[in-house]
Every structure is written in structure tokens, then in C-alpha cells.
Amino acid sequence: MTAKRHLFLRYPRLRKFLVSGKLYLTHPNHWIPALKTLTRQLKARKIGITIIRPKDTYIFRDIFNSSSNVIDVGCGQDAELSLYLISRYGLKAYGVDPTIKHQDALKKIEDMTGNRFQHIKSAVTSKEGEMTFYETLDHESGSFYEDHKNIISDRIRSYTVKTMTISGLVKRLNLQSVELIKLDLEGAEYELFNDIDLNELNNCRQIYIEFHHHAFRRYTRQDTKKIVDRFRKNGFKIFSLEDYNYLFYRS
Asked: pTM of the prediction?
């Protein structure tokens, strides 16, 4: 074994550092997003925002206790954010997901958590009623829109699902306050937040939205920015690591 290989085996972080350094030297344009992310991570610590990455990245203010309520819209089959918060705080989490193939896994999570997690078999949109949902057989996330990149490229099946507004969902769950609502709507966030009266969110202390301009041709970063600006003008504070997942909250 060469001395160089022995050194890398003993100090794997050194190897990672050198590989990253070489990448940045050969591709200087990588410095800008990396520096931006680092700067924002430091800012998050300063203003009391927590960043977790069980699989995806989630951002929230740590204001939870065992009496807190969390609504996890588009929770997926793993409901990873809900499980993290339940295990840490013993709170109640409601996972909203209409996808048929996720139902067995989410039922197991309900049983495993002693119903601290509750699965709501509906979707959140701008209107109450029913819509056609396109479930991908090749990825986890389906969509209401046929021009979503997963729906274009994957094998799919479609079926009708029930839809609720945010205020309708909170009313149905009979919640006086929600410490966090996470929304992963696979494109439906644009219609929802272009139309919604943001006063409907007054009982939600923080809102985390995953935007999907990267998954459509019809939407761009500018469409995301318009919604972010709506929140800003309505008195919300805003934080994002990478300019497509955003946390909105009031002081």
C-alpha cells in the first residue's frame, strides 16, 4: 500500500477535502453556490433555524413540544419529517398524501407510532373537491399535472382523489394552531399560493414549501420568486438554503 493511499484511508475527510479542492480549482463556478450555502447555514444557526437531512433537506424553527401539531403534506411513503419530529418531541403529525401505493407503508407508520402519526388520504390544492392524480410507478412523487417531468418520463396510472384547501384541512383536523405545515405539492403550489388569501395561514406558525420550477417547463424561478415576494409583503420572514425550498414564518 502506498503512503498516499494509507494516508487517505486513515484520514477520509482529508481525501474528501482534496477532491473538493480539485473540483473547485478546475471548475471555479462551483465556488459561488457552495459559498452561498455555507453563508446561509451560518445565518440559520444565528437566527435559530434548524436544518436536517434525513433524506431530503428540511428547515424549521425549533418551537416544538409534545403538544405541538405538524401537518406534513406530500409526506411520501417514508414520512421522514413526521417521524423525525415525533421521535424527538413526541408531537402529533398528520401526513397528507393521496398516493395509493404509499398507503400500506403509511398505515404501518401509524401503528408503529401509536397513532402519533395519522395518514390523511387526500391532497391539498386551491379548491375543495376532486381531481385526477397521476401516480408514477417509477418514482416516489406523482402530480396533478401531466407535464411534470416524472409523469412525462415514467409509467403512470391515474385516479380521482379528494382535495382540500389548507384552511379546510386545518378545520377538518380541528386544530387551533399548527406549529409547522410542510407542503410538497409537486407543482400545485403555484396555483395554490397565487390564489390563496395568506390570512388563511394565521394559525400556522411556520410554513415550509418545496417549489418545483425545476420539474416543469411552464414554471420558472421567477414564478417561485413572485410567491416568495407575496409572503414577504404580507409580513413573513423568509429563509432558504438554495432558493427552491423556503421557510416562511412570523416573529
From this structure: 0.86
